[in-house]
Amino acid sequence: MRLSTVPAILASVLALASPALSTPSNRATDIERRDLRQIYAAARKESGVLQVAWGGDEQSDSVAAAFESLFPEVKVNVTVDLSKYWDMKTDRAFLETGSDCVDAAFLQTMHDYPRWKSEGRLMPYKFREWEDVDPRLKDEEGYYLGAFFYNFGPIIYNENKLPAGAEIPKTYQDFLKPEWKNKLVLTYPNDDDAIAFLFSIIIEKYGWKWFSALISQNVHWVRGTATPGKILSQPSSQAAISFTTFPTGESNIKLVLPEDNYMCWPQRGAIFSSTKMPESARLFLSWVMGDDYQRNWQRNGLAGTRNGFGAQEMFQKEFVDPLAFEKFMVDRTKVEWYKLQFESQIGTAQGLSPLVDGI
Ligand SMILES: *[C@@H]1O[C@H](CO)[C@@H](O)[C@H](O)[C@H]1NC(C)=O
């Protein structure tokens, strides 16, 4: 696509929004007073399947299954795809039909949400425990909010595949030591904005010579952030260590936090105003922000975005700033510059989408 066509598309997306919707009203949205049981009672009266866009790079039915086990009469279709593709799909649907193709979206593309709000495409909603979310993590008018934290940069390794006598790296500089040659499996930083941001943080500290030296370690580059973890587990692969993945749950796959700057972010969620199932959408968002789901995210040193589930601890952690990723994401010129710098040295990301490939 020619660059000049991008603003034209955004302008027509804007033009499609009805005047009534295009200026978010200043009337304060009330905080939900109903509990989950009462919202469920209202949601059961709606017919259809609630469509939820879920950003990720590993296929999973677990979110829908957990929701439907509690609320069997509300059908939900949680579809995982890369956030960078989900936002394109919703934009195209809105452009072509005036309606977003899903009822709600939980994505890593933080920059989309303020834009969607200004285009009149979001429905404000303040779930019951709204006050338990730090103002830095939510839109004060209730159009979107951070729902749970993810991070990349923690060091993940297979303890059975470490080089003899090797010390686990503490900093990203340590990965340049000779013992890590042929042992690294990493996600293409030009294929995922979160990984691009992590690499930009490291390069701002150590310079581009770090990136060149890393490449000469003969890195195994892969698509997706779940893929390195899976490859670490395979006995047939030389790869022993990564810093762009998460633990697989197997007992020999260990995680250690770096003593170096890494990244984390609050995954954002919102309900689209074109939803025909507003009560079901409110139920889903309330459930994600409810005690049970939030508690889930406290595993692996992560946190929910509610204060009661570790959010303030994320702000106090050393080496990481939970608000920095959004600043990177809104600067699309900078994101593009970094991604093309990476691509100029390691080439385009090879392989099918990690959701199709299924290593
Ligand atoms: C679930 O969502 C996907 C992606 O939007 C769609 O292709 C599929 O038809 C949906 N399934 C149901 C049962 O709604």
Automatic annotation (TrEMBL):
Keywords attached to this Swiss-Prot or TrEMBL record, sorted alphabetically, are: Signal
Query: Where does the record locate the signal sequence feature?
Result: 1-22
Q: Which SUPFAM superfamilies match?
A: Periplasmic binding protein-like II
A Pfam family matched in the record: SBP_bac_6
Q: Does the keyword Signal apply?
A: yes
Gene3D superfamilies, per database record = Periplasmic binding protein-like II
What's the protein called, per UniProt?
A: ABC-type Fe3+ transport system
Tell me the lineage of the source organism.
Answer: Eukaryota, Fungi, Dikarya, Ascomycota, Pezizomycotina
